[in-house]
Backbone:
């Protein structure tokens, strides 16, 4: 008796810098768990990277390698998931063009991250068509593989809802070509960076996945905690503490509860809290650091994995575009 076909997942990361703990906890760690339950397409979205890094496009190439190494080191397996480069599958661009023709302008203008990034990244000129249209390209990425679900952090949830709206509009005009993808939110979708804001490579506040234990410690120990705790004897509230977002990602729940009580009663100090965090972070990250050291020494293997993955992704994309062209009457 034939096994039922697995549901399809698509997700991607932009190669705009080294991956950080927010990428790991908010997406990558979850992707590793999903590999056996779904047919997974994980894409290094280098065209998306151009939307903010167009001034230094050549740097994207090096970051593609960095992202691939981090993915493999964290446990993504090219035998169980398709790992590939977006620009190697030209059908992403074709479908993006088609979907952009039917997407009302107010739909993309209302995406909250657009205005937020204009403010947060004021040193960059992001007033471009490509940056505004980023979510439409994202919708094309998802639709191209006829994905049933998209695992993302909460900051991307509005983008997935827009993708669903665009897909519904396409299906209404041209027939049911695409499924509507659902959003799979991770358990810890948002981590604080070293300055208390959301961790982001763009903000310069990230703890990178490749950072050594010594570097991680150097970044964690000066972090601001709950501002109520001006002195060691002052009680605090862990849910208002940027460091505690990292506890939620790396420390077992029973230990989290113990730390929370100690914080609220001033039974422990912030340095004690950070020491517990570092102990568990290093335990979690040590296997990744060890694998990374091996993968970094073999760029030819990384290239071969991405080329093979792009060939598999292209085959699926071509099947989709045959249906799309037929639906349009082209």
Residues:
């Amino acid at each position: 008796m034939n096994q039922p076909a697995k549901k399809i997942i698509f997700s991607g990361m932009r190669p705009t810098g080294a991956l950080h703990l927010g990428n790991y906890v908010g997406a990558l760690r979850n992707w590793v768990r999903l590999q056996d339950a779904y047919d997974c397409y994980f894409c290094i979205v280098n065209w998306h990277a151009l939307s903010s890094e167009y001034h230094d496009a050549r740097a994207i190439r090096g970051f593609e390698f960095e992202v691939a190494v981090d993915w493999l080191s964290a446990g993504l397996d090219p035998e169980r998931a398709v790992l590939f480069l977006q620009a190697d599958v030209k059908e992403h661009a074709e479908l993006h063009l088609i979907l952009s023709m039917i997407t009302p302008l107010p739909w993309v203008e209302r995406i909250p991250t657009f205005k937020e990034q204009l403010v947060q990244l004021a040193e960059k000129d992001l007033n471009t068509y490509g940056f505004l249209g980023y979510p439409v390209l994202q919708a094309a990425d998802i639709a191209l593989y006829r994905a049933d679900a998209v695992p993302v952090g909460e900051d991307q949830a509005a983008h997935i809802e827009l993708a669903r709206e665009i897909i519904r509009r396409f299906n209404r005009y041209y027939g049911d070509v695409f499924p509507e993808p659902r959003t799979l939110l991770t358990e810890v979708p948002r981590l604080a960076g070293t300055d208390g804001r959301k961790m982001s490579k763009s903000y310069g506040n990230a703890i990178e996945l490749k950072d050594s234990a010594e570097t991680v410690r150097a970044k964690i120990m000066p972090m601001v905690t709950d501002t109520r705790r001006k002195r060691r004897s002052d009680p605090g509230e862990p849910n208002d503490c940027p460091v505690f977002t990292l506890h939620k990602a790396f420390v077992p729940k029973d230990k989290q509860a113990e730390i929370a009580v100690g914080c609220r009663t001033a039974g422990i100090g912030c340095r004690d809290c950070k020491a517990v965090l570092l102990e568990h972070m290093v335990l979690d990250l040590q296997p990744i650091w060890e694998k990374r050291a091996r993968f970094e020494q073999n760029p030819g293997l990384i290239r071969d994995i991405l080329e093979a993955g792009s060939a598999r992704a292209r085959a699926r994309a071509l099947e989709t575009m045959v249906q799309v062209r037929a639906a349009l009457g082209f």
In short: The beta strands are 8-13, 39-44, 81-85, 149-152, 182-185.
